[in-house]
């Protein structure tokens, strides 16, 4: 019995190699636990890692600026598109209004001929019936053209207006103020409020 005691005591004590291994494991464990937050480790380092770095912050600001620039460009493009639509609609409306301008000009030649025939018929004797017929045709043609937006420009007795009158001669006179239209050689017309052709007129000039 006494001989077994030294054997048990010897068996319960680790040798030098086991002691070194145990000590190494304990040191590693202490080092690991010291790194955990709340155990005296670098908890502040974890908080710093959670916050954006300076480079990341700059990248975020750059992306924000790019987003704002793109938004502004989209708004400008949208405004340009709206203006484009309005311009197209306006041009379409103008085309519909003035597409018949060339036709109107051709019809005016016939209207001029009617006017000339009326003047000649009025100077001939016995031509009252023919004159009346011309007047009716002329009035009908005028009414038809007026429905399509044609309007005669007032000229005789009006102040000369270069926007609507084309002076082809001057007449020295004391019976009218200077630059007053005293004679109309050819009527001028507007189509839907826009000048189609100016009136050809003679303008009063100061008599010497």
Which secondary structure elements does this structure contain, and how are they paired or packed?
Layout: H1 4-12, H2 16-35, H3 43-50, H4 54-98, H5 101-122, H6 128-147, E1 150-152, E2 165-173, E3 181-186, E4 189-191, E5 194-197, E6 199-206
Parallel strand pairs: 2-6
Antiparallel strand pairs: 1-4, 3-6, 4-5
Note down, in words, how this protein is organized.
With 208 residues, this protein is of the alpha+beta class. Among the domains are: 78-148, no CATH class; 151-208, Head domain of nucleotide exchange factor GrpE (Nucleotide Exchange Factor Grpe, Chain A, domain 2, Roll), CATH 2.30.22.10. Helix content is 60%, strand content 16%. The chain is built from six helices and six strands. The protein has helices at 4-12, 16-35, 43-50, 54-98, 101-122, 128-147, and strands at 150-152, 165-173, 181-186, 189-191, 194-197, 199-206. Strands 1-4-5 form a three-stranded antiparallel sheet. The protein has a three-stranded mixed sheet with strand order 2-6-3, with no helix packed on it. A hairpin with a 2-residue loop joins strand 4 (189-191) and strand 5 (194-197). Helix 5 (101-122) runs antiparallel to helix 6.
